[in-house]
Write a structure and sequence with these properties.
By secondary structure, this protein is of the alpha+beta class. 24% of the residues lie in helices and 40% in strands. It has a single domain, classed as Alpha-Beta Plaits (2-Layer Sandwich), CATH 3.30.70.120.
């Protein structure tokens, strides 16, 4: 099996940011993304998704290191001071690199 090295960015944040994040991802070079509704808890409390303002999302983006780095820097500078945001980046291998 041959894979091609890419980076996986995972952002877990408030659902209210979804449209803004998707706009930013596209503008900063992401070829695509995946969004899922999630539940959980952390230092800012529990998010059980019992009502609209309590929803959280998980956004995943696979891309080149430069694109992922630009996304991380933008999210840190734009959203982290005022919203619940958790992020991590990990290495991944893809089978069809032209898609990312």
């Amino acid at each position: 099996m041959q894979t091609h090295a890419k980076k996986l960015l995972v952002v877990i944040t408030e659902a209210a940011l979804e449209k803004l994040l998707v706009r930013d991802l596209r503008r900063l070079g992401a070829h695509g993304y995946t969004v899922c509704d999630v539940r959980g808890g952390g230092e800012r409390g529990e998010r059980a998704a019992d009502w609209e303002a309590d929803r959280s999302i998980r956004v995943e983006v696979v891309g080149d290191e430069a694109v992922v780095a630009a996304l991380v820097e933008h999210i840190l500078a734009t959203y982290c001071a005022n919203y619940a945001v958790s992020m991590y980046v990990t290495d991944c291998g893809v089978m069809r690199p032209h898609k990312f």
